[in-house]
Structure formats: C-alpha cells, structure tokens
Design brief:
Order of helices and strands: HHEEHEEEHHEHEEHEHEHHHHHHHHHHHH
Shape: elongated
Mean pLDDT: 84
Number of helices: 20
Low-confidence stretches: 478-486, 496-501
Helix content: 40-55%
Number of strands: 10
Structural class: alpha+beta
Distance between the termini: 78 Å
Strand content: 5-15%
Radius of gyration: 32 Å
Strand order of the largest sheet: 2-1-5-4-3
Length: 501
C-alpha cells in the first residue's frame, strides 16, 4: 500500500486481491454493486456466483447493509461494502471450503480497508490534478486579458477570487527558461490556496514549453534587483541551476503587460549568453515613438485600412502572428495551424502583402504599433500620404538605427544582412556568404545578446533589425541596397503616396 501511494500511480487492486488470496486461499473480487460487474478479481474467480448475489450487492452498495455472509451452492461467500459515500464497490470473498475463521474474516475486512484507502487516495489525486488544471487555465486567462490591455476583463472573469496582482500599480514580467518538468514543479511549489502566487502570478506558456511567465508586482519604486518576493526566488533558481536563464522587463502598468512581456523575451535572449544568465531589459526608445507623429499615424491607418473589412478574430490572430510563430499562435488560441493560416491568408489578401516575408511583417507590426498608441494626435484630413520610406528618412530614425546597430562588429552585421535578405533562413544565408549554418546561428545568438532582441525563439526582435538595416543601407546611397527575395517586402516600404480621406 505504501509503495502504491508513494509512486502516485493508479492503485493496483488486483495485486492486493492476489495478496489476500495467497494468505487465506480464497477467490476474491471487487464488484461494482449497482451493476454487479467486476472491477478486478483473482485468477479463476467463479463469475457465476455474482448472479444470485445481485440483490444483496445492490443493498450493500446503496448503504442498506454493511456486510453479509451467504451460501451460494458449495461456496461460502462473504461480502463487505467499501467506502462511506457515493456508489460504493463491494469486496466479495468466496471460499470453496468451510466458513472463514474470525481471523480470516478480519484479514479480509482489513484488505477491504486498504483498497478503500487506495481508491480514496486515487480520487483525491484526480481531484487535485483537476484543480491544478483549472487553476492553470484561469491564470492563463488572466494573463491573456492583460496581454490585450484589459485588466477590467481579467477582474471580471475572476469575480469572487480576484488575484492580488490586479491591485498592483505596476508589474514586471520575469521570463524564466527551464525544463517543462521544472516549470510545473516551480509553479505548484509557490502556488497558494487560491491557485495564484501571493501578490504575483506564474503562468506556464502554452506556446513555448520551456518558458515560465511570471508577473511580479512592482509597487516599491525600486530597481529589479531589489524587487521582493518571487523575483528573488527566480534569481536564486537561476543561480542554482546552470541550465536556467531569466529575462526581466522594466516596470509597466497592468494594461501594458504585452510590452513588458516583449521586453522580457528580448532580455531572455540576451541572458542566455550572459555570465549570470540573468538580464534586465535595457532598450532604446522604440522606433514608433521617434517617427513624425501625424504622418506616421496617417501612413499606418491607410496601410491597415483594408483590415477594417475583416472579422475582428482575423485581425487579432494576424496581430499575434506578427510576434510569435504560427505554431505558437495555434497553441495559444487552441486552434489548428490550418485555421491560423486561413485567417492570415485573408489578411494577406486584404493588405496585398506576403506575411511570410520578414519586411512585410516588420511593416505591418510597425503600423499596428502606431495605430495602437493612444498618445499620437489625429491626422488632418486630405493630407498627402507618406510612404514608410519617407518616415524612415528622418534624422531621428537614422540616429535610432545607428545607435541600435552600433554594438555589432562587421562579421555579425554581414551575417545579419545575409540572414534578413534570405528571409530569416539560416541555411540560405550560410550559402550566400560561404559559412556553415551553425556559424550563422552562433552569430545570431551573439547578435541577440548585443542588441537585446529575440531573433530565434519568438522572432519578435526581427522587426527592429529589419527597419534598422533598411534605414542604414538606404542612407549609404540614397536608395536601399537592402533587398531580399520578395518584391513585396520592398514595396511595403515604397508604397505610392496619395491623399488621405
């Protein structure tokens, strides 16, 4: 019994019944009393005895009787109900000799108690697993609401058990890289009785099985090194486990959780090659904040206007697919990859672009960022529509691109150019510049650390790289020498200007 409970496996009732058979030389079965069907039995149990026992088994199972002994043909049969509630099974002991002695009857009764305990342990374990699953789903739902900037939705869906995190003024996202087994253990070890994690929230990422997303309340106005609670716990875990890495965002309002997650993902990419394997996001001002506001918003709205005719779910899926792979979108939304692809195809037809091209994705992402900002003023009507190229020719954009790429040495820039020109295909990039695919990926890992951008896991950092390379190569000769395999990628930058309204 102890062995079975410790290993948390399904209880092997047959093993217990066989043990009783060896002790007192009887036939034993565990029977569902309401249907008189055997759940388990010893080898050679006389099934024919169950038919005349049917009325007795029903009375036992329903609680009218606790135990009974009866003669069936030449068999002495002893029946005892197990458990105290629900539809209870009955232990049936059949002896083809004299009636069981008091000691044998006591041993049979004790065996029934053991089986009842094993079943109760199994049921408790099943209930616990069900609770853990529901708690995990609820935490993910809260995260999903925060990722779309709607803390009120997160609060409404948790009415009666609102997580303390939703009362925080600011949060940081800590993104922990560890094994899938470890992240489940960590999540459960720090879970409280409400299914949350005190003032914080830990969520197993459904898209990336080695990522644990931790939202840490940060109302202390201190730096990340001084963040109390689970922030210190996560740092200690990384210190003690050489295969772990941790990326930490800056502080954000709850409604900006998506930006915090993006920062943490970029920081994690840098952390993998950092000696301590912990990195805090230190990024520049985003490109979108440096573009001329009115022309930028005018371009973005004109570029994305065809999406207005599509269902909101298509737009939302397309938006998500700009920052994570399609397979991850399918996992996050519990959809098939074919369904995700179908939605993206509709968006492609509406926009007239190929969203498998990194330049098109970079342009769409920038437009979505611009239209999603509440700080930009409304553009005046009947203005001349700028192109994205026009927006990126400004001095502020050029300064941003130069500063962004400044940490890279010549070999890394060369590899990065080749990789983007090969549409982020490492093998084709390797062929173009005469190095191995592994060398390309090694260079890209170095670039991730130097730029604090995730290029190879979620790929969300590619968009800034695309814009920075386009800006710097355009400045060299007045016309971009940064050309890939898809003409649509270039057209996303050079769309013909027109008029608004």
């Amino acid at each position: 019994m102890r062995r079975q409970m410790v290993h948390r496996a399904e209880p092997d009732v047959r093993e217990v019944l066989n043990w009783l058979q060896r002790q007192i030389s009887v036939h034993v079965a565990l029977v569902a009393g309401n249907t008189a069907t055997m759940e388990a039995s010893t080898l050679g149990f006389p099934r024919e005895v169950l038919r005349p026992l049917a009325p007795l088994l029903v009375r036992l199972s329903s609680g009218q009787t606790a135990a009974a002994a009866i003669q069936v043909d030449k068999l002495h049969v002893r029946c005892e109900v197990l458990g105290v509630c629900g539809t209870r099974p009955v232990l049936v002991v059949a002896a083809d000799r004299e009636v069981l002695s008091p000691q044998e009857a006591a041993l049979a009764s004790h065996t029934g108690s053991v089986i009842a305990l094993l079943r109760r342990d199994r049921d408790a374990d099943r209930i616990s697993r069900g609770y853990q699953y529901k708690a995990r789903q609820l935490r993910f739902a809260v995260l999903s609401a925060l990722m779309v900037g709607d803390p009120s939705l997160a609060r409404r869906m948790t009415t009666g058990a609102v997580p303390p995190l939703l009362d925080a003024d600011q949060v940081r996202v800590y993104l922990l890289h560890c094994s899938q087994t470890d992240r489940d253990r960590i999540t459960q070890a720090h879970q409280d009785s409400s299914g949350y994690h005190g003032p914080d929230l830990m969520v197993q990422c459904p898209a990336f099985k080695t990522h644990l997303i931790c939202l840490i309340a940060d109302d202390s106005q201190t730096d990340a090194d001084s963040t109390p609670g689970h922030g210190k716990v996560l740092r200690r875990l990384v210190h003690d486990n050489p295969h772990y890495a941790l990326g930490i965002s800056g502080p954000h309002a709850l409604s900006a959780t998506a930006q915090a997650y993006s920062q943490a993902a970029h920081a994690l990419a840098a952390a993998r090659t950092t000696p301590g394997r912990v990195a805090l996001y230190h990024g520049q001002t985003p490109l979108a904040d440096l573009l001329p506001p009115r022309p930028a918003l005018l371009w973005a709205r004109a570029f994305l206007r065809p999406l207005d005719s599509l269902p909101k779910v298509t737009v939302d899926i397309t938006h998500l697919a700009m920052s994570v792979p399609r397979s991850a979108v399918a996992s996050l939304l519990d959809l098939s990859r074919n369904t995700v692809t179908a939605h993206i195809r509709r968006a492609e037809r509406a926009l007239g672009v190929d969203l498998s091209d990194v330049r098109c994705r970079a342009a769409v992402t920038l437009a979505l960022t611009l239209t999603g900002s509440t700080s930009l003023p409304e553009p005046a009507e009947h203005q001349v529509l700028p192109t994205l190229d026009d927006l990126l020719r400004t001095d502020s954009a050029a300064a941003w691109a130069q500063a962004f790429l400044h940490p890279l040495q010549a070999p890394h820039r060369r590899t990065l150019h080749a990789w983007i020109n090969a549409n982020a295909d490492a093998q084709r990039a390797a062929s173009r510049i005469g190095i191995s695919r592994n060398t390309v990926r090694t260079h890209l890992r170095t670039v991730e650390a130097l730029l604090s951008r995730d290029l190879l896991t979620t790929g969300s950092g590619i968009h800034d790289v695309v814009h920075a390379l386009h800006i710097t190569t355009s400045k060299v000769g007045g016309r971009s020498s940064f050309a890939g395999e898809s003409g649509q990628g270039v057209e996303a930058y050079r769309g013909q200007p027109g008029r608004a309204g």
